[in-house]
Amino acid sequence: MSTDEITLPLIDLSGYINPKSPGDKERVIAEVREACTQYGFFQTKGHGIPLSVQRGLLQSIDTLFNMPKEEKRKLSYLENVSRRGYEESGVSLREGDALPDSKEAYYMGREDPVVEHSGFYGPNVWPPLPEEQFRGPVWDYYQATYGLGQTIWEILLQGLGHSTSMMETFAKKPMVPMKMIRYPPLSATLPGQFGVGAHNDFGGVTVLLQQPGRHGLEVWLEGKETWLPVQATEDVYVINCGDMIMNWSGGEYKSAKHRVINKADNESRLSCATFFHGDIFATNPLNPADPNKATVGQLLVKRFRNQMSFHKELIAEVGAQA
Ligand SMILES: O=C(O)CCC(=O)C(=O)O
Ligand SMILES: [Fe+2]
């Protein structure tokens, strides 16, 4: 079979969210388990996020990135203790990549009024745009994907025979960063430069919205040694598992490598990824008997310490190894 005939599974979540008959929930749990075991990725409809909320978010991302460059730079995430705000094109560079990502991004997360745990929690950076053009639609969207991320976690837990009550301790005050992204057209990228270079997501569940029709995401198929292009279809989300889920599930759920190349000559591409990781002090909910008691916070610091320059106090607080 060539990759032309392979597509990611498309799972209708409405059977789980609004079950109509007795077997509906179990069927969805089994489908998600199968997709995550085989690919670590699936696409979904019937997810319950209104189209108007998705469109509102895409419109806000467009408005944000169309602000003048100097205005965007004033919102730099590098100046913010919680690493919220704007990242310009050409900043993200993974080890081994020849060139930095062409994407520009904007980071936000939970809205906690006070900076706590040396910046893990804190307020967002909001651009100077009218409430109805940015903060309103973005916050509505954030809450909707926060809810969807939580639902997927519940499904993944049940897929391994656990109860959803695990979520009470796992997601008391979960880390749920969200990244809004704009990829420049191909004509504005350097030869060999990726929108986002090949990577595995760090942690929990990723809920990804792609601008309809603006393809570009590719997933690495381990067995086939090839990249699978993923369609960007309106109202269809992409869900994937990060490395933390793969390790915590003993490899049952996969974390697949992926990258983005915007092949459109003259059109930029928008997307938005919400990463539902879990409470910073939570340990493995997918295998409560796991002797490894590393917490979400410790794993995060370990993975990002070179990129994020965490404060010493934070490293001490989560008890991560120096
Ligand atoms: O923009 C996309 O389609 C994917 C983005 C992504 O993989 C990420 O932000 O981790
Ligand atoms: Fe990713």
Automatic annotation (TrEMBL):
Coiled coil: none annotated. The keyword Amino-acid biosynthesis does not apply. Gene3D superfamilies: B-lactam Antibiotic, Isopenicillin N Synthase, Chain. Pfam families: 2OG-FeII_Oxy, DIOX_N. GO terms for molecular function: metal ion binding; oxidoreductase activity. Belongs to the iron/ascorbate-dependent oxidoreductase family. This is Fe2OG dioxygenase domain-containing protein. It comes from Cladonia borealis.
